[in-house]
Amino acid sequence: MQTLRLGKEHFKKNPDGYWSDYIGTESVADFDGHIEIEGNLGYVRFSGHLSAKGYIAAGAGSGIKASWGIEAGEGIKASWGIEAGLSIICGGALKVSCRIFVGSRVGKKL
User: Fold this and answer.
1) CA 101, CA 37: separation in Å to the nearest integer?
2) Does the model's pTM come out above 0.70?
3) 69-72 and 105-108 as β-strands: parallel, antiparallel, unpaired?
4) The pLDDT of residue 104
5) Phi, psi of 4 (to 5 degrees)
6) Fewest CB atoms within 10 Å of the CB: 9, 65, 79, 89?
7) Which residues are registered as beta bridge partners of 45?
8) How many C-alpha atoms does 25 have within 13 Å on its Cβ side?
């Protein structure tokens, strides 16, 4: 399974918030592999849906925000927190050091 590694160059600081927006060219709405986000980026936000067939992991000092939902086939991990406007669906472990916010539902895929 391929791994998409996202670093500082894939995000742009949002002047109106405490997060950075994803500006990368790779679609993360239904990625066929793993997504790894570099550490020490603060909260990184994805417009729409963040989905990976494998795992989604954010390094120490990074958190994940998605406007709609976050879904991973194997697991989701973030040190700062995980926020989704609609849902978080995880096929494996859901690990977060700080907090989880979900607009509608949080669950484990059956």
Assistant:
1) 19
2) yes
3) unpaired
4) 61
5) -95, 115
6) 9
7) 21, 65
8) 0
